[in-house]
Amino acid sequence: MSDAAFMRAAISLARRGLGQTAPNPAVGCVIVKNGLVVGRGFTAPGGRPHAEVRALAMAGTQAKGATAYVTLEPCCFAGKSGACTEALRSAGIARLVVGATDPNPRVNGGGLAKLRAEGIEVTENILREACEELIAGFALTVREQRPLVTLKLASSLDGKIATGKGESQWITGPEARRAGHALRGRHDAVLVGVGTVLADDPALTCRIAGFRAAPLVRIVIDSHLRTPLLSQLVSTAAHDPLWILHRNGADKLRIKALEGAGVKLIELPAAAAGVDLVAGMRALAGQGLTRVLAEGGGTIAAGLLRAGLVDRLAWFHAPCVIGADGWPAAQAFGIATLDQMPRFALLAQHRMGTDLLTEYQKA
Protein backbone atom coordinates (compact mmCIF):
# COMPACT_ATOMS: atom_id res chain seq x y z
CA MET A 1 0.00 0.00 0.00
CA SER A 2 1.08 3.57 -0.66
CA ASP A 3 1.72 6.41 1.79
CA ALA A 4 -1.59 7.96 0.68
CA ALA A 5 -3.49 4.76 1.45
CA PHE A 6 -2.14 4.54 5.00
CA MET A 7 -2.77 8.26 5.51
CA ARG A 8 -6.38 7.76 4.43
CA ALA A 9 -6.66 5.17 7.21
CA ALA A 10 -5.24 7.70 9.69
CA ILE A 11 -7.74 10.31 8.47
CA SER A 12 -10.62 7.88 9.03
CA LEU A 13 -9.43 7.34 12.58
CA ALA A 14 -9.10 11.08 13.23
CA ARG A 15 -12.69 11.66 12.14
CA ARG A 16 -13.86 9.49 15.03
CA GLY A 17 -12.65 12.18 17.40
CA LEU A 18 -14.27 15.20 15.72
CA GLY A 19 -16.27 17.15 18.26
CA GLN A 20 -14.82 15.35 21.27
CA THR A 21 -11.16 16.36 21.57
CA ALA A 22 -11.39 20.11 22.26
CA PRO A 23 -9.34 22.11 22.95
CA ASN A 24 -7.00 19.73 21.11
CA PRO A 25 -7.40 18.85 17.43
CA ALA A 26 -8.70 15.49 16.23
CA VAL A 27 -5.69 13.47 15.06
CA GLY A 28 -5.28 9.96 13.69
CA CYS A 29 -2.18 7.75 13.70
CA VAL A 30 -1.37 4.43 12.02
CA ILE A 31 1.87 2.54 12.63
CA VAL A 32 3.00 0.23 9.84
CA LYS A 33 5.76 -2.39 9.76
CA ASN A 34 6.57 -4.61 6.80
CA GLY A 35 3.38 -3.46 5.07
CA LEU A 36 1.13 -4.40 8.00
CA VAL A 37 -0.68 -2.12 10.45
CA VAL A 38 0.66 -2.90 13.93
CA GLY A 39 -0.82 0.07 15.80
CA ARG A 40 -3.54 2.65 15.38
CA GLY A 41 -5.11 5.36 17.47
CA PHE A 42 -6.97 8.65 17.49
CA THR A 43 -7.04 11.47 20.02
CA ALA A 44 -9.16 10.40 22.99
CA PRO A 45 -12.25 12.32 24.17
CA GLY A 46 -11.08 15.34 26.14
CA GLY A 47 -7.85 15.55 24.14
CA ARG A 48 -5.72 13.03 26.04
CA PRO A 49 -4.03 10.70 25.34
CA HIS A 50 -2.89 11.78 21.89
CA ALA A 51 -3.29 9.62 18.80
CA GLU A 52 0.42 8.76 18.61
CA VAL A 53 0.53 7.57 22.22
CA ARG A 54 -2.48 5.30 21.74
CA ALA A 55 -1.09 3.85 18.49
CA LEU A 56 2.33 3.22 20.05
CA ALA A 57 0.70 1.46 23.00
CA MET A 58 -1.04 -0.91 20.58
CA ALA A 59 2.12 -1.49 18.54
CA GLY A 60 4.33 -2.22 21.56
CA THR A 61 7.79 -3.49 20.59
CA GLN A 62 6.74 -3.74 16.94
CA ALA A 63 7.04 0.05 16.71
CA LYS A 64 10.84 -0.25 16.52
CA GLY A 65 11.87 0.32 12.91
CA ALA A 66 8.26 1.01 11.82
CA THR A 67 6.67 3.94 9.96
CA ALA A 68 4.17 6.21 11.72
CA TYR A 69 1.48 7.92 9.64
CA VAL A 70 0.04 10.91 11.50
CA THR A 71 -2.53 13.39 10.20
CA LEU A 72 -0.93 16.28 12.15
CA GLU A 73 2.65 17.09 13.06
CA PRO A 74 3.47 15.56 16.48
CA CYS A 75 3.76 17.97 19.39
CA CYS A 76 7.28 18.71 20.61
CA PHE A 77 6.54 20.17 24.05
CA ALA A 78 5.43 18.54 27.28
CA GLY A 79 2.03 19.87 28.31
CA LYS A 80 -0.31 17.80 30.48
CA SER A 81 1.48 14.75 29.07
CA GLY A 82 4.84 14.10 27.44
CA ALA A 83 5.76 15.29 23.94
CA CYS A 84 4.69 12.95 21.14
CA THR A 85 8.03 13.50 19.38
CA GLU A 86 9.76 11.95 22.40
CA ALA A 87 7.30 9.06 22.48
CA LEU A 88 7.96 8.31 18.80
CA ARG A 89 11.74 8.55 19.25
CA SER A 90 11.75 6.36 22.35
CA ALA A 91 9.65 3.71 20.60
CA GLY A 92 12.21 3.47 17.80
CA ILE A 93 10.07 4.77 14.91
CA ALA A 94 12.29 4.88 11.81
CA ARG A 95 10.10 6.99 9.53
CA LEU A 96 7.33 9.56 10.05
CA VAL A 97 4.76 10.50 7.40
CA VAL A 98 2.74 13.63 8.21
CA GLY A 99 -0.32 15.19 6.59
CA ALA A 100 -0.46 18.74 7.99
CA THR A 101 1.88 21.04 9.90
CA ASP A 102 0.68 22.11 13.35
CA PRO A 103 -0.34 25.83 13.28
CA ASN A 104 0.35 26.14 17.01
CA PRO A 105 3.38 28.49 17.33
CA ARG A 106 4.79 26.16 20.00
CA VAL A 107 5.13 23.47 17.32
CA ASN A 108 4.76 24.76 13.71
CA GLY A 109 7.53 22.72 12.14
CA GLY A 110 9.49 22.26 15.35
CA GLY A 111 8.24 18.73 15.87
CA LEU A 112 9.39 17.65 12.42
CA ALA A 113 12.77 19.39 12.84
CA LYS A 114 13.32 17.63 16.17
CA LEU A 115 12.61 14.20 14.72
CA ARG A 116 14.87 14.84 11.72
CA ALA A 117 17.63 15.84 14.12
CA GLU A 118 17.18 12.46 15.83
CA GLY A 119 17.80 10.71 12.50
CA ILE A 120 14.17 9.84 11.77
CA GLU A 121 13.14 10.12 8.12
CA VAL A 122 10.25 12.58 7.71
CA THR A 123 7.86 12.87 4.74
CA GLU A 124 5.47 15.83 4.74
CA ASN A 125 2.21 16.98 3.09
CA ILE A 126 0.65 13.61 2.30
CA LEU A 127 -3.09 14.32 1.68
CA ARG A 128 -2.47 17.71 3.27
CA GLU A 129 -5.78 19.31 2.27
CA ALA A 130 -7.86 16.53 3.87
CA CYS A 131 -5.68 16.60 7.00
CA GLU A 132 -5.97 20.39 7.29
CA GLU A 133 -9.76 20.12 7.07
CA LEU A 134 -9.69 17.90 10.17
CA ILE A 135 -8.01 20.68 12.18
CA ALA A 136 -9.85 23.65 10.62
CA GLY A 137 -11.49 24.58 13.92
CA PHE A 138 -8.27 24.22 15.92
CA ALA A 139 -6.42 26.33 13.32
CA LEU A 140 -9.01 29.11 13.60
CA THR A 141 -8.62 29.23 17.38
CA VAL A 142 -4.87 29.69 16.86
CA ARG A 143 -5.03 32.24 14.02
CA GLU A 144 -8.24 34.17 14.74
CA GLN A 145 -9.03 33.23 18.36
CA ARG A 146 -12.45 31.86 17.44
CA PRO A 147 -13.93 28.43 16.68
CA LEU A 148 -15.05 27.17 13.29
CA VAL A 149 -18.78 27.84 12.87
CA THR A 150 -21.05 25.59 10.83
CA LEU A 151 -24.50 27.04 10.16
CA LYS A 152 -27.09 24.29 9.79
CA LEU A 153 -30.37 25.17 8.06
CA ALA A 154 -33.39 22.96 7.35
CA SER A 155 -35.88 24.59 5.02
CA SER A 156 -38.37 24.25 2.22
CA LEU A 157 -37.17 24.69 -1.36
CA ASP A 158 -37.92 28.41 -1.12
CA GLY A 159 -35.80 28.85 2.00
CA LYS A 160 -38.51 28.91 4.68
CA ILE A 161 -37.92 27.30 8.09
CA ALA A 162 -41.50 27.56 9.38
CA THR A 163 -44.98 28.53 8.31
CA GLY A 164 -46.29 32.02 9.00
CA LYS A 165 -47.76 30.69 12.27
CA GLY A 166 -44.40 29.28 13.36
CA GLU A 167 -45.03 25.58 12.65
CA SER A 168 -41.71 23.90 11.81
CA GLN A 169 -41.78 20.29 13.06
CA TRP A 170 -41.09 18.63 10.80
CA ILE A 171 -40.16 20.16 7.43
CA THR A 172 -37.48 17.56 6.75
CA GLY A 173 -37.79 13.78 7.08
CA PRO A 174 -36.28 11.30 9.57
CA GLU A 175 -33.14 10.62 7.52
CA ALA A 176 -32.28 14.33 7.40
CA ARG A 177 -32.98 14.71 11.11
CA ARG A 178 -30.66 11.80 11.89
CA ALA A 179 -27.97 13.43 9.74
CA GLY A 180 -28.52 16.60 11.76
CA HIS A 181 -27.84 14.69 14.97
CA ALA A 182 -24.65 13.29 13.41
CA LEU A 183 -23.61 16.88 12.65
CA ARG A 184 -24.10 17.71 16.32
CA GLY A 185 -21.97 14.72 17.21
CA ARG A 186 -19.05 16.02 15.13
CA HIS A 187 -18.99 19.43 16.81
CA ASP A 188 -17.93 20.51 20.28
CA ALA A 189 -21.09 22.51 20.83
CA VAL A 190 -24.52 23.30 19.37
CA LEU A 191 -25.79 26.90 19.46
CA VAL A 192 -29.26 28.42 19.15
CA GLY A 193 -30.94 31.70 19.95
CA VAL A 194 -33.36 32.18 22.82
CA GLY A 195 -36.22 32.47 20.32
CA THR A 196 -35.73 28.81 19.39
CA VAL A 197 -35.68 27.86 23.08
CA LEU A 198 -38.93 29.71 23.77
CA ALA A 199 -40.67 28.32 20.69
CA ASP A 200 -39.52 24.68 20.74
CA ASP A 201 -38.08 23.88 24.21
CA PRO A 202 -35.33 21.77 22.57
CA ALA A 203 -32.98 19.34 24.33
CA LEU A 204 -30.10 19.96 21.84
CA THR A 205 -28.48 16.58 22.43
CA CYS A 206 -26.99 14.11 19.96
CA ARG A 207 -29.60 11.38 19.94
CA ILE A 208 -27.68 8.68 18.09
CA ALA A 209 -26.79 5.94 20.56
CA GLY A 210 -23.04 5.45 20.95
CA PHE A 211 -22.12 8.21 18.49
CA ARG A 212 -20.02 10.18 20.95
CA ALA A 213 -18.53 9.68 24.40
CA ALA A 214 -17.91 13.29 25.43
CA PRO A 215 -20.88 15.47 26.44
CA LEU A 216 -22.11 18.00 23.87
CA VAL A 217 -22.03 21.60 25.09
CA ARG A 218 -25.39 23.36 24.50
CA ILE A 219 -25.16 27.14 23.99
CA VAL A 220 -27.95 29.72 23.97
CA ILE A 221 -27.56 33.32 22.88
CA ASP A 222 -29.92 35.02 25.31
CA SER A 223 -29.27 38.73 25.82
CA HIS A 224 -31.67 39.20 28.75
CA LEU A 225 -31.63 35.67 30.25
CA ARG A 226 -35.15 34.74 29.19
CA THR A 227 -34.40 31.00 29.03
CA PRO A 228 -37.07 29.37 31.26
CA LEU A 229 -35.84 27.72 34.43
CA LEU A 230 -38.15 24.77 33.72
CA SER A 231 -36.95 24.32 30.14
CA GLN A 232 -35.35 21.02 29.05
CA LEU A 233 -32.02 22.79 28.71
CA VAL A 234 -31.88 24.17 32.24
CA SER A 235 -33.36 21.08 33.89
CA THR A 236 -30.62 18.89 32.36
CA ALA A 237 -27.72 21.34 32.83
CA ALA A 238 -26.27 19.34 35.73
CA HIS A 239 -25.21 16.50 33.41
CA ASP A 240 -25.36 18.03 29.89
CA PRO A 241 -23.40 21.31 29.86
CA LEU A 242 -25.45 24.45 29.17
CA TRP A 243 -23.79 27.80 28.51
CA ILE A 244 -25.71 31.04 28.03
CA LEU A 245 -24.18 34.08 26.34
CA HIS A 246 -25.85 37.22 27.68
CA ARG A 247 -25.29 40.97 27.63
CA ASN A 248 -23.89 42.90 30.55
CA GLY A 249 -26.32 44.29 33.10
CA ALA A 250 -28.51 41.17 33.25
CA ASP A 251 -30.88 40.67 36.18
CA LYS A 252 -28.91 39.44 39.20
CA LEU A 253 -31.70 37.19 40.46
CA ARG A 254 -31.88 35.44 37.08
CA ILE A 255 -28.11 35.02 37.13
CA LYS A 256 -28.24 33.45 40.59
CA ALA A 257 -31.08 31.09 39.67
CA LEU A 258 -29.45 29.89 36.44
CA GLU A 259 -26.04 29.41 38.03
CA GLY A 260 -27.74 27.51 40.85
CA ALA A 261 -29.12 25.12 38.25
CA GLY A 262 -25.62 24.44 36.91
CA VAL A 263 -25.68 26.82 33.92
CA LYS A 264 -22.44 28.53 32.87
CA LEU A 265 -23.08 32.21 32.12
CA ILE A 266 -20.80 34.20 29.84
CA GLU A 267 -21.26 37.97 29.88
CA LEU A 268 -20.66 39.86 26.63
CA PRO A 269 -20.73 43.48 25.50
CA ALA A 270 -24.13 44.65 24.28
CA ALA A 271 -24.71 45.20 20.57
CA ALA A 272 -27.56 46.64 18.51
CA ALA A 273 -28.93 43.15 17.81
CA GLY A 274 -28.39 41.78 21.33
CA VAL A 275 -24.84 40.66 22.06
CA ASP A 276 -21.53 41.10 20.25
CA LEU A 277 -21.25 37.82 18.34
CA VAL A 278 -17.57 38.31 17.48
CA ALA A 279 -16.80 38.74 21.17
CA GLY A 280 -19.00 35.73 21.85
CA MET A 281 -17.04 33.48 19.51
CA ARG A 282 -13.78 34.64 21.04
CA ALA A 283 -15.17 33.83 24.47
CA LEU A 284 -16.10 30.32 23.30
CA ALA A 285 -12.59 29.79 21.93
CA GLY A 286 -11.25 30.98 25.28
CA GLN A 287 -13.32 28.24 26.92
CA GLY A 288 -11.62 25.66 24.69
CA LEU A 289 -14.22 25.16 21.94
CA THR A 290 -12.97 24.66 18.37
CA ARG A 291 -16.10 23.58 16.43
CA VAL A 292 -19.57 25.09 16.92
CA LEU A 293 -22.76 24.07 15.11
CA ALA A 294 -25.28 26.93 14.90
CA GLU A 295 -28.82 25.65 14.38
CA GLY A 296 -30.96 28.73 14.41
CA GLY A 297 -33.17 30.40 14.02
CA GLY A 298 -33.33 33.09 11.36
CA THR A 299 -32.12 35.89 13.64
CA ILE A 300 -29.02 33.99 14.74
CA ALA A 301 -28.32 32.94 11.14
CA ALA A 302 -28.51 36.57 10.02
CA GLY A 303 -26.30 37.77 12.86
CA LEU A 304 -23.57 35.21 12.15
CA LEU A 305 -23.67 35.89 8.41
CA ARG A 306 -23.56 39.66 8.99
CA ALA A 307 -20.50 39.27 11.22
CA GLY A 308 -18.70 37.02 8.70
CA LEU A 309 -18.57 34.18 11.21
CA VAL A 310 -20.05 31.37 9.09
CA ASP A 311 -17.28 29.06 7.83
CA ARG A 312 -19.43 26.13 6.69
CA LEU A 313 -23.05 25.80 5.60
CA ALA A 314 -25.02 22.56 5.97
CA TRP A 315 -28.35 23.20 4.25
CA PHE A 316 -31.10 20.57 4.26
CA HIS A 317 -33.79 21.22 1.63
CA ALA A 318 -37.12 19.43 1.82
CA PRO A 319 -39.13 18.96 -1.42
CA CYS A 320 -41.87 21.43 -0.47
CA VAL A 321 -42.75 25.11 -0.85
CA ILE A 322 -44.16 27.29 1.94
CA GLY A 323 -44.40 30.71 0.31
CA ALA A 324 -43.63 34.31 1.20
CA ASP A 325 -45.64 34.25 4.45
CA GLY A 326 -43.26 31.64 5.92
CA TRP A 327 -40.29 32.42 8.18
CA PRO A 328 -37.01 32.86 6.24
CA ALA A 329 -33.91 30.82 6.99
CA ALA A 330 -32.06 34.11 7.61
CA GLN A 331 -33.65 37.38 8.62
CA ALA A 332 -32.61 40.66 6.99
CA PHE A 333 -29.01 41.60 7.74
CA GLY A 334 -28.34 44.70 5.68
CA ILE A 335 -27.45 43.43 2.20
CA ALA A 336 -28.05 46.31 -0.22
CA THR A 337 -25.91 45.24 -3.20
CA LEU A 338 -24.83 41.86 -4.58
CA ASP A 339 -21.16 42.48 -3.84
CA GLN A 340 -22.03 42.58 -0.11
CA MET A 341 -23.39 39.03 -0.07
CA PRO A 342 -21.51 36.33 1.84
CA ARG A 343 -20.40 33.80 -0.77
CA PHE A 344 -19.78 30.09 -0.37
CA ALA A 345 -18.16 27.34 -2.42
CA LEU A 346 -19.95 24.03 -2.97
CA LEU A 347 -18.34 21.08 -1.20
CA ALA A 348 -20.78 18.18 -1.57
CA GLN A 349 -24.39 17.08 -1.92
CA HIS A 350 -26.02 14.08 -0.27
CA ARG A 351 -29.50 12.64 -0.66
CA MET A 352 -31.14 12.05 2.73
CA GLY A 353 -34.33 10.10 2.11
CA THR A 354 -36.56 12.56 0.25
CA ASP A 355 -34.42 15.55 1.30
CA LEU A 356 -31.12 16.98 0.03
CA LEU A 357 -28.15 18.06 2.14
CA THR A 358 -25.85 20.56 0.44
CA GLU A 359 -22.55 21.46 2.11
CA TYR A 360 -20.60 24.66 1.47
CA GLN A 361 -17.52 26.41 2.81
CA LYS A 362 -16.76 30.11 2.95
CA ALA A 363 -15.49 31.24 -0.46
Please tell me how large the radius of gyration is.
Answer: 22 Å
User: How many H/I helical runs?
Assistant: 12
What's the order of the H and E elements?
Answer: HEEHEHEHEHHEEHEHEHEHEEEHEHEEEE
What oligomeric state do the depicted chains represent?
single chain
> What portion of residues is helical?
25-40%
N- to C-terminal distance: 35 Å
Describe this structure in words.
The relative contact order is 0.12. With 363 residues, the protein is an alpha/beta fold. It starts with a helix and ends with a strand. The longest helix has 13 residues, at 3-15. The radius of gyration is 22 Å and the shape is globular. Helix 4 links the parallel strand 4 and strand 5 (121-123). It contains 12 helices and 18 strands. The strands form 4 sheets. Strands 11-10-9-8-14-6-15-18-17 form a 9-stranded mixed β-sheet, sandwiched between helices. It has helices at 3-15, 51-59, 84-91, 110-117, 128-134, 136-143, 174-185, 194-200, 232-235, 252-260, 277-286, 298-306, and strands at residues 28-33, 36-42, 67-72, 95-100, 121-123, 148-155, 160-162, 189-193, 217-221, 242-247, 264-268, 270-271, 274-275, 291-296, 312-317, 327-328, 344-352, 355-362.
